Amino acid sequence: MLDILQKYGGVSKLKEIIVSLHESVVQKPETRHFLFNTNTEDLFKNQLIFLPFILPKNERLLKKGIAQTAPPNVRIGPSQFEEIVQMFRVILIKEYKVAREDVLILVATILELIEETRSQKEDLTLTTWKSIDINVKTLDSFFTKKGLISKIQNSNEISILSGTSYPVGVEIVTSNKTIGLSAQAKSKPEVSPDALSELFNKMNSETARIALSLNKEGPDSVLSTKFSMPYDKGIPTRLFVKAIHDFAALFCDTLEKDADQLFTNKSQR
């Protein structure tokens, strides 16, 4: 999202946008309860803290509609939420001259981050880990509670084997205090390098939301992708588990372009 915002004034402009949205929402009796218990300083600060846990959004997918991401007990009525979405679109287009191809991405991302702030204010239990508490045992226990099957590989790595749409590797990188997600698929032995290269180029041209790489590992070619999140300021657990599910789903969607099944798709086993 920040790369889009740079075209319209960067982070300082984001603060103005948050203030404009807040003023518009609280002025209407039908929508004011959405931001009743929040202030613009918290909303803006949390945009920057939580943004690294949001997977890049795609305008083509967002055209299907922007859904609420807060827990059910925090959500507002669907018609009120849709009114806020439309209100926000008008603000971005008319007040900030945002190009229409950028509007949906900004609306969906900023509202998702606002919903996380709203949700945390309503939480009765702790939903943010401190950086000192991040370790594979904490992650393994957390994944189990979320219905995921995981396996500790070593002191810094844990694998999610089931419960997501595709297996995901999770690595704690203590040197720069980040958590890295990874997913990969190996090519089948009989596949020609030319066929793999053609498919890889197609996947890269059609997949704008994740960066793919294709590397040779022994006799196999391995298609892989990674996503990194900082934990120096803690981890919002709700966004963390959503990021894992979104990451797995994106890689799974990428493999759906492999119509000839050149790669071994672990999600189909």
In short:
This protein has 269 residues and is an alpha+beta fold.
Topology:
Blueprint: H1 2-5, H2 10-27, H3 40-50, H4 59-62, H5 78-95, H6 100-122, E1 128-129, H7 136-145, E2 149-152, E3 157-162, E4 168-173, E5 178-186, H8 193-206, E6 212-217, E7 220-230, E8 235-236, H9 237-255
Antiparallel strand pairs: 1-8, 2-3, 3-4, 4-5, 5-7, 6-7
Averaged pLDDT: 90
Query: Structural class of the helix and strand makeup?
Result: alpha+beta
Shape: globular
Cross-sheet strand order for the largest sheet: 2-3-4-5-7-6
Radius of gyration of CA atoms, rounded to a whole number: 20 Å
- Ends distance: 35 Å
Strand content: 15-25%
Order of helices and strands: HHHHHHEHEEEEHEEEH
Count of distinct strands? 8
Looking at how many chains there are and whether they match, the oligomeric state comes to single chain
Number of helical elements: 9
Biggest sheet descriptor: 6 strands, antiparallel
Low-confidence stretches: none
Helix content: 40-55%
Structure description:
It contains 9 helices and 8 strands. A hairpin with a 5-residue loop joins strand 3 and strand 4. The model has no long low-confidence stretch (mean pLDDT 90). The chain has helices spanning 2-5, 10-27, 40-50, 59-62, 78-95, 100-122, 136-145, 193-206, 237-255, and strands spanning 128-129, 149-152, 157-162, 168-173, 178-186, 212-217, 220-230, 235-236. Helices cover 45% and strands 17% of the residues. The chain has a 6-stranded antiparallel beta sheet with strand order 2-3-4-5-7-6. A two-stranded antiparallel ribbon has the order 1-8. It starts with a helix and ends in a 14-residue tail after the last helix. The radius of gyration is 20 Å and the shape is globular. Helix 2 crosses helix 5 and helix 5 crosses helix 6. The protein is of the alpha+beta class and 269 residues long.
